[in-house]
Amino acid sequence: MPFANLIAGAWVEGDGSENINPSDTGDVIGLYSRASAGQVGDAIDAAETALHAWARTTPQFRAEILEKVGLEIAARKEELADLLAREEGKTLAEATGEVMRASQIFRFFAGEAVRIPGEKLDSARPGVQIEITREPVGVVGLITPWNFPIAIPAWKIAPALAYGNTVVFKPADLVPGSAWALAEIIKRAGIPEGVFNLVMGRGSVVGEEIIKSPKVDAVSFTGSVSTGQHILQTVAARGGKVQMEMGGKNPLVVLNDADLDVAARVALDGAFFSTGQRCTASSRLIVEEGIHDRFVSRLAEMLRDQVVDDARKPGTTIGPVVDQRQLDQDLRYIEIGRKEGAKLLHGGERLNREKQGFYLAPALFTEADNQMQICREEIFGPVATVIRARDYEEALHIANDTPFGLSSGICTTSLSKAADFRRNSEAGMVMVNLPTAGVDYFVPFGGRKASSYGSREQGRYAVEFYTSVKTSYVAP
Q1: Where residue 1 falls among pLDDT bands split at 50, 70, 90?
Q2: Given 121, 273, 315, 332, which is the most exposed site by the fewest CB atoms within 10 A?
Q3: Which residues are catalytic?
Q4: Superfamily per CATH, domain 5-246+451-474
């Protein structure tokens, strides 16, 4: 029997789709129901019906449910991490960290539920009082990607529920297992029927129903630029609220005065861990001339020490690519890089392991130019380019010369250069001597340019998207 969708508080089956382990393609994790268009409509109707009562529950009631969810996630971290690593392909250590982050997010928003901000002011008119309050935005459609199958759903679902919205949640079709486990936990925590709905399946069916429905007041999406643009046009055309995170081509600048080992470790982590499948990954390594050769040599040495294997196998440092389609895309870009004249210094070939899987040796290109296709377009795999810069000013210019603006980083021991980079980097998040990938759960997440649209996610800034502001005037 397939794992079912959660609609109006009941488990509803649909046509089953196999969930395949990218470390072992012969391992079928389970069959997961794909919702029909009609079932998605039922979920939206259920969310609309449940909205009035849920929005008027006490903040304490909502906080207690979110706290229960967070605590159960933490209590089951080994089980959930094993499932996540098995279906997505990140290492067990990385999967465990992601699961714990999901727990922390739910517990954080349990606290936020009881401290929703507001203001009380005196009017310019004598005796009149002004109250500024926040109310739920309504029925929220949440569409999440495959690369963080429990953390990204958590940072959308938790604030949506904390602020009194009802939810229709569509996870990525590649990774339904973690989403289903999370839905089961939310249901067991005592969520009223219809408040939270899980509809699994393809974007062309499930996603389209969500974004087109006039009953869905807001849509939060994380995924590709092309899909995001389609969602924006569709939802905005009917007056809905939209929030989107759509990837990046993130620079890591390495200056001559950087600590070489620190810079190489930062680059290795940011570019290649989680198989490079992070929207915040350091895909462009912009290195000043004086340290360039030593940096490249040290990073290549570190890459040779990496173990690419089964995500759940002890000692693995880099797991497989998520599926055949992504592997083909990575290999296509590697070939493009060769043809463009970049030098493939390390990796780039498909690997064979004990079990059949989507294994790729992490690829490092040198002698790259920022105008090359491999330096302009998001590859979303374990592929990084090294771009030589004459000095800091050129490095900063190259870093900002991109249509994206999600995350950026610099490795330097100069306080003045670090401060200048933080001020002038055209990115939503800036790291100093840290990987561009890796953020805290209680601060805002988001970027500029083609990377993001709408208000920030996570932390207290999440209130901006998941609530509407009401201004009330009261005369004596």
Answers
A1: confident
A2: 315
A3: 245, 279
A4: Aldehyde Dehydrogenase; Chain A, domain 1 (3.40.605.10)
